[in-house]
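testing teh design pipeline on a random one, pls ignore if ur not involved
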């Protein structure tokens, strides 16, 4: 028998170093050597040390009809939904407004330059070049002023469409201060006195960015350098750091370009009054003039993102900071597909059904005791997270299954019809699919009609690709489980209802009676006020972010089954409504909310009630100004979330 080997003996270094090396690498503590310090210095500069830039300017770069405005609108909606103040500054808009002003000026003689056709963008046209530069200067000036937050600034961009409307969180700093003063003088067993900081309202601690999107071709190095110089000047004037990110859209997919050309000439004001043929010729002539002087992003000292063929490929250079982790996944997820997205609540449960029967029996008594709510407290529903579907909930599940099957088959039919009539560019052996999942594929082995909707599912029995997502609540998982077609259900806790923490199961009347100071804070700032040990509505944004990315990147049908609070946050994104007003969004029971993408980057919404006998819950909703309902707040016992709180109206119970 060979002697035992001492693993710590110097005679057997292999016995100790080899496993450690392959499993863990070096076990020495990491230190910043001079070489590492030098390499990390650039990263420290880009991330701003301990904090990111206070303002961010996203500069779009690209030839006309490359989807820059589409990307700008998607960015605007997404960043506003994330809670930032965001605005688009479109240089073309300033240029057109300048043209209107010049035409009204009798003393100004532009000869034929007032017509902004392709010749207007010719560098040999000195007068037009000067006007283009003036429009860019005005746009950038107002962009930097807006980033500073100059009050009362009359912006030219306010005179036209609403694409530049910015929304921001309501911070209610005065209300928060008043709440703090109240807490310092309150007495008794108030939870408000002993609350951990951050469990009341975190609107003052939450950081919001001010982000401007500078939408123009910015096609030369000289123009981009000028933008950087103007930002540097503004930094000195305002004593605030401005981060600059260049976002270049490159498109060399000829089929995609032809689609973009059609969208461009049908919606851009520059082509009003032209025939389609004349507009297309003018656009192509304009693009040729830009191509003659176009310079792509290649300065690796600058921060930039290159998007190829609308997100089929990305190149990222020097992108760090908090915004990078949310902007990059979104850009990678966006696509130009036409797939429908369905949002709906989990079906009615047995406990809810029993509760509604009790409420119907007590309806007359309830109307007579509007001011005696305490007598009804004992009858309130006690929601359990393990509640299962009741009879109506199971009916909704079956109806939802049939509805999704019908929609899915119609979607596949449209996809196959489009594939059959689509003219493909003949590239021997390989085919460039632009925004497809695979990028390149063998034409012989993968016919286009089967490539239009690629499913990640391996089950050949499924009739069409469909991603079904639900919360982990049993009632939601049960709603998503369909016997005819067992699509894989992705149940994620991020779709669970808002966590009420210590107040779970309590109704508003009990909260108001036991914790009046906290309740007053909730009335002042319902979006940011966090439930003790739980969440606030603003916390749900971070929770829903990964869900939204999953939904956006799908090419086939997507069904999301969740609960009112979560669905309100998601619907706010698809409707482009201010996120701090999401509590006002009604989420009807037993109804599928369908969202279909628009070419411009928005969404078309339709609602489909799937139970023919209507929603009993909606018939029991309290009217505005009436008494508080006796259901739990932000559960699933009501058809919609509370309306905006005020000094005279109580918060209605919800979900």
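output:
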């Amino acid at each position: 028998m060979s002697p035992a080997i001492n693993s710590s003996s110097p005679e057997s270094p292999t016995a100790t170093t080899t496993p450690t090396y392959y499993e863990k690498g070096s076990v020495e503590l990491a230190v910043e050597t001079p070489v590492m310090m030098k390499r990390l210095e650039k990263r420290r500069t880009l991330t701003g040390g301990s904090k990111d830039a206070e303002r961010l300017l996203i500069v779009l770069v690209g030839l006309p009809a490359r989807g820059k405005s589409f990307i700008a609108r998607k960015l605007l909606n997404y960043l506003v939904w994330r809670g930032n103040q965001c605005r688009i500054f479109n240089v073309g808009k300033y240029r057109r407004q300048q043209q209107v002003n010049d035409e009204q000026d009798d003393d100004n003689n532009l000869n034929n330059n007032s017509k902004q056709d392709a010749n207007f963008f010719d560098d040999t046209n000195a007068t037009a070049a000067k006007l283009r530069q003036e429009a860019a200067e005005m746009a950038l000036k107002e962009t930097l002023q807006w980033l500073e937050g100059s009050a009362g600034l009359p912006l030219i961009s306010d005179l036209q469409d609403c694409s530049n409307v910015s929304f921001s969180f309501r911070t209610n700093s005065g209300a928060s201060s008043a709440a703090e003063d109240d807490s310092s003088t309150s007495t008794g067993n108030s939870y408000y006195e002993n609350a951990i900081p951050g469990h009341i309202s975190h609107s003052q601690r939450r950081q919001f960015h001010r982000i401007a999107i500078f939408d123009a071709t910015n096609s030369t190095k000289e123009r981009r350098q000028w933008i950087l110089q103007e930002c540097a000047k503004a930094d000195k004037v305002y004593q605030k750091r401005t981060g600059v990110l260049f976002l270049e859209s490159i498109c060399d997919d000829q089929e995609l370009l032809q689609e973009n050309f059609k969208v461009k000439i049908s919606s851009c004001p520059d082509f009003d009054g032209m025939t389609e043929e004349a507009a297309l010729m003018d656009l192509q002539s304009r693009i040729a003039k830009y191509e003659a002087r176009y310079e792509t992003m290649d300065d690796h000292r600058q921060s930039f993102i290159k998007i190829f063929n609308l997100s089929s490929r990305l190149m990222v250079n020097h992108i760090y900071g908090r915004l990078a982790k949310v902007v990059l996944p979104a850009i990678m997820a966006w696509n130009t597909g036409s797939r429908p997205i369905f949002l709906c609540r989990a079906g009615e449960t047995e406990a809810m059904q029993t509760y509604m029967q009790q409420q119907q029996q007590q309806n007359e008594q309830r109307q007579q005791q509007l001011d005696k709510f305490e007598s009804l407290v004992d009858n309130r529903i006690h929601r359990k997270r393990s509640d299962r579907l009741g009879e109506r909930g199971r009916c909704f599940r079956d109806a939802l299954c049939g509805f999704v099957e019908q929609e899915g088959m119609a979607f596949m039919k449209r996809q196959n019809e489009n594939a059959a009539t689509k003219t493909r560019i003949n590239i021997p052996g390989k085919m460039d699919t632009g925004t497809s999942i695979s990028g390149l594929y063998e034409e012989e082995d993968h016919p286009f009609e089967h490539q239009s909707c690629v499913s990640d599912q391996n089950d050949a029995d499924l009739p069409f690709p469909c991603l079904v997502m639900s919360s982990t609540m049993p009632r939601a998982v049960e709603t998503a489980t369909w016997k005819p077609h067992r699509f894989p259900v992705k149940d994620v806790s991020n779709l669970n209802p808002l966590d009420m923490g210590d107040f779970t199961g309590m109704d508003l009347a009990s909260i108001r009676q036991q914790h009046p100071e906290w309740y007053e804070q909730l009335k002042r700032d319902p979006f940011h006020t966090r439930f003790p040990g739980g969440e606030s509505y603003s916390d749900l944004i971070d929770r829903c972010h990964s869900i939204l990315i999953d939904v956006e990147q799908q090419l086939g049908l997507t069904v999301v089954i969740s609960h009112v609070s979560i669905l309100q946050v998601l619907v706010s994104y698809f409707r482009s409504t201010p996120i701090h007003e999401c509590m006002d969004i009604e989420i009807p029971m037993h109804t599928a909310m369908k969202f279909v993408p628009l070419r411009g980057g928005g969404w078309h919404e339709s609602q489909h009630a799937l139970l023919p006998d209507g929603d009993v819950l909606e018939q029991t909703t309290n009217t505005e100004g009436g008494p508080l309902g006796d259901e739990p707040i932000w559960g699933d016992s009501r058809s919609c979330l509370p309306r905006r709180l005020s000094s005279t109206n109580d918060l209605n119970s919800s979900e």
